[in-house]
């Protein structure tokens, strides 16, 4: 897979241009409608372009975070509560439409609810956004780290590949997720966090 670090200046220019296919309000509307025709480049602009929106607060805990955490831990999910769970994760995504973990879980809930059509659309959006991360680097050095716009996205990517991390450390503009020695073919992954590192007080 070819990778290319995001060019944030070009992304900002494109998403602010009303005549561009990457104009942010237009892209976000398509994402919220689970449009399956979004291209790889449009997903890149959606994901990295979110950091230019005033709603972008990488360290903010969402209003429904505690409720959502129960579902992530596998508590409180039952067949009769599926519609409640679906509404909860829709609310989470209303607050942060690029919450990858919530998006992935919502697709799972629709699947449990036998609505595979909606599940597939949302899963398609999830994979499109995950691809934006996966094509931004190879994760093998800090210079070629995967670019993420929140720490939770690091764990979303690791979970996707069923990789467990042993420790996390900060190295320059990167988070380094170290694996157990000899467990995988690589010792760890680097994630470039330069878009939000130091924005704690925003």
Structure description:
There is one protein chain. The protein is α+β, with helices and mostly antiparallel strands. The protein folds into two domains: 128 residues, no CATH class; 51 residues, no CATH class. It is 45% helix and 8% strand. The protein is built from eight helices and four strands, in the order H-H-H-H-H-H-H-E-H-E-E-E. It has a four-stranded mixed sheet, with no helix packed on it. Helix 2 crosses helix 3, helix 3 packs across helix 7 and helix 6 runs antiparallel to helix 7. The longest helix has 19 residues. It is globular and about 45 Å long. The model has no long low-confidence stretch (mean pLDDT 93).
Unreliable stretches covering 5 or more consecutive residues: none
What is the gyration radius calculated from CA atoms? 17 Å
Shape: globular
Tell me the distance between the termini.
35 Å
Tally of separate domains = 2
Beta-strand fraction estimate: 5-15%
Strand order of the largest sheet: 1-4-3-2
Largest sheet: 4 strands, mixed
Structural class of the secondary structure composition? Answer: alpha+beta
Put simply, the count of helices is 8
Please give the number of β-strands: 4
SSE pattern = HHHHHHHEHEEE
Query: What value does the average pLDDT take?
Result: 93
Helical residues, percent: 40-55%
């Amino acid at each position: 897979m070819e990778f290319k670090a995001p060019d944030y200046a070009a992304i900002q220019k494109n998403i602010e241009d009303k005549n561009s296919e990457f104009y942010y309000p237009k892209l976000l509307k398509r994402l919220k409608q689970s449009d399956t025709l979004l291209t790889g480049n449009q997903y890149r602009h959606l994901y990295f372009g979110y950091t230019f929106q005033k709603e972008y607060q990488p360290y903010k805990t969402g209003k429904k975070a505690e409720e959502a955490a129960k579902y992530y831990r596998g508590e409180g999910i039952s067949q009769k509560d599926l519609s409640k769970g679906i509404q909860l994760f829709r609310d989470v995504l209303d607050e942060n439409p690029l919450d990858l973990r919530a998006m992935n879980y919502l697709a799972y809930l629709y699947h449990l609810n036998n609505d595979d059509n909606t599940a597939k659309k949302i899963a398609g959006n999830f994979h499109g956004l995950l691809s934006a991360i996966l094509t931004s680097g190879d994760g093998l050095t800090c210079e070629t780290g995967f670019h993420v716009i929140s720490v939770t996205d690091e764990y979303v990517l690791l979970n996707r590949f069923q990789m467990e991390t042993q420790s996390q450390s900060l190295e320059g503009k990167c988070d380094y997720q170290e694996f157990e020695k000899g467990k995988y073919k690589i010792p760890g992954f680097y994630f470039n966090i330069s878009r939000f590192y130091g924005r704690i007080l925003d």
